[in-house]
Structures are given as C-alpha cells and as structure tokens.
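Dear Dr. H.,

I hope your travels went smoothly. While you were away I took the liberty of generating a structure for the chain from your last submission, since the lab meeting agenda had it listed for discussion. I wanted you to have the full record in hand beforehand rather than looking at slides cold. The sequence, exactly as received, is reproduced here:
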Amino acid sequence: MWPAREDRRWVGTPEFMAREQLEHSRHVGAQIEATHSLASFGTGTAIAALAERLSDARTFHRVRAAAASALGELISPADDFAALHALARYVRRQHCDGTGLLLPLQFVPLDAADEDELVGRLGHYLTLRAVVEAIGRARDGQGHTPAAALSLLHELLDASSNAANPCDEGFLLGSLVEAVGAARPRGGGAAAAGADADGGRAGEAGEAGDGDAAQSVGRHVAAVTAHVRRLLALDVIRPSHGKVLTCSCLRALVQLETAWALPPSWALYLGYDADVDAPPSVRLEAARCLLSLALEPTLRAPSAGEASRPAGAPRPGDPALALALQLDEARAHAPLERLGLWRALCSLLEAAEEAEAAEALAARARVEADGESVAAAAASSPGALACERAAFATPGDSAAAASRQRLWQLVTAGSEARVGPHPS
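The corresponding predicted structure, in token form, is as follows:
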C-alpha cells in the first residue's frame, strides 16, 4: 500500500507508473490524467517526462497542452526554476529561427493544406497558447514573476505578427496580453509603476538596487499599457472572433490598474459597457472591470479624485452595489446579461473574501513577529468586503434594498425572462 499524500492532484499512482502511463498509453484521457498526477511530484524525473511529452510533435495536442499546464504548476525556486526553463526551451526550439528571433506562426490556407498538416499546425498553435498561460503563472517564493518568464512573455508579445497568417490569432494574443498583465515583476510597489521610463524618480528615491527594480516595474507597466492600447485599436480594425482580444485587453488593463494603483480608465470601460454594437461578452467584461475598480480599497477613499471621474463612474466612497444596480438597470433589455453581471459581482466578492483572509493570516504573522494588534491593523484599513457588507445591511438604503431584491430574484428564478421586470 502506498502512503497517502495531501495533494489533491495525486490519484494514488506512484511517479514511475504515471511516467509510464504518459509515455506508453494510447488513451488521451489516461495521458492527461498522468500529467495531473505528475504535477504533484516536484522531481526532476517528473519535469523531464512532461517536457519530453510537450516537445513530441506526434503526441496529441491536448496532451501536450496538459503537459505544459503541469509544468507551469511545477515552477519553483527550489529547483532553480527547472520547469520554467523546460517551457522556455520549447518556445525557443519550436518557434524561433537559428539566431534566436521568434518566428510568426505560419498557417497555410485551409483549402491548400492536407488534413495532417492542418491538424499539426493547429496543434502547435494550441500548445503554444497553453505554454504561454503556464509561463504567465510562474512565481517565485515571494509571489513575483521570475525575470526569465517576464522577458520571454514580453519578447513573445513584441514579436507577435500575423502578416503571414490568414487565420485569426486573437485567442493567442489574448492569452499573451493577459499573462503579461498579470505578471508581478520584482520592484518597489505601486509607486514604482508611475516612475518615468528612464527611472529618474525611482533612482532618486532610494538605493541603486531599489532604483533598478523600480525602473523595471515602470518599463513593464508602460510596455503592457502600450500593447493593450495597440491591440484594442487592432481589434477595431480587424475584429477577432467574438472580440475575444478586446476582452483580454480590458482584463489585463484592470489588473495593471488595481495591482499598481494606476489612474483608472473609467471612460474606456464605460464606453465599452455602453456600446450597444459590441458583443455581450465585451460589455460584461467592461462591467466587470468597473466593479473590480469599485471594490478596490485605494479608490474608495474620498481623496481618490472625484472631480476627474466621468459621468457614470462610481463616486469615491460609494459601494459597488450601487454601481451594480446602475449597470443592471442599463441591461433591462438583456436578462442574461443581467444574470452575468451579478454573477461577476459575486465572483469578485468571493475573490475579495479570499484576499482578506490571506491578509488576515499575514496580519497574524506580523503580530507574532512584531507584536502589532490585529484589531488595530484591521480597523486602520477596512477591506472592500467589510464595506460592501455594511452597505448591503444599511437599513432604509434604497440601493441596498433594490440590490437585495434583485439578487433574490436571480436566485429564485434565474433570469428576468421568467419573473418579469422587477419593480423600481
């Protein structure tokens, strides 16, 4: 009998059996299950087996994508980022020329390609997308993106070209911009993101090492913001399928603004939310961005610059529930969009609850280290979830009452198509 392990990805198979299953099984489901099992082992042999399957062009592309995802879960500073180096080697070997420059994906026209060639090129495309997403999840012990992962993601985004490709690359570009937007380079925090491109302010603020880190963060934020603006314009000229590229750009931009305390792009999100010609997915993503900014604690304070906010943006100190009700009323003609809007708010509140729980654990650790009072720390900076709970439970508040009624309708009936318009 094998000893039990706490990792939920482990299905009871020893590592050597998972490696054999991944290499010799003819069943795609069994191979994918083997990648999940190997992701629970942080050994060099597990990483080597996954890297070999990733590089094998004869392997079905879904198995290769699962191997890339498993390698992304195994990225760790404990083994000097061996899994990250395996992913980077795959990109360099499969998608670079002899000099190391990245090549654009070459898709032959659909009417000129035989079936095997078309499937092979599609598999390379889907595998590269999985590799990009795995590299984007790379973090070191302090939660920062390793420099090798960040530079490769920027290089992939800089070298992306669709000039020789008649097929749409919107999903790949979307994965790239989301991965770069979610990256967390090592630097000086939110203040570093606003530093000039030459790092003048950052270099004067502290030591040389801190200045270099701040310059790196400033360059990263400036580059990602420029890419987002460029790809948003590109998706207007040459729309991707379902405007998926626009959704990814909005998601990446709001991640930058909330992570580095950048000035929010209220007008941009409000414009996409009010665009009746945009697909519902774009309008819902814009609404999710607005709700995410409304839940950001740094933007709830009255000093956040109320005069600079356009009409329709939440005022400093207003709860996100009031904004959600405003966005809900603008979707009276689309009951499924209203359902998606409130589901987005609930998911954001769940994420805020998890973040506040993690912050509470960190505060408790500070208490043990420095003797700081947990109650004093919590009272000094109340979280977004506590503010929303207080607003939701305020007696006599019209927005809170309307929000409760709307949520109850969605819980009991699912959409307005069955219950009719709710009373104002």
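Two observations you may find useful: Residues 195-208, 416-424 have pLDDT under 50 and may be disordered. DSSP finds 21 helices and no strands in the chain.

With kind regards,
E. W.
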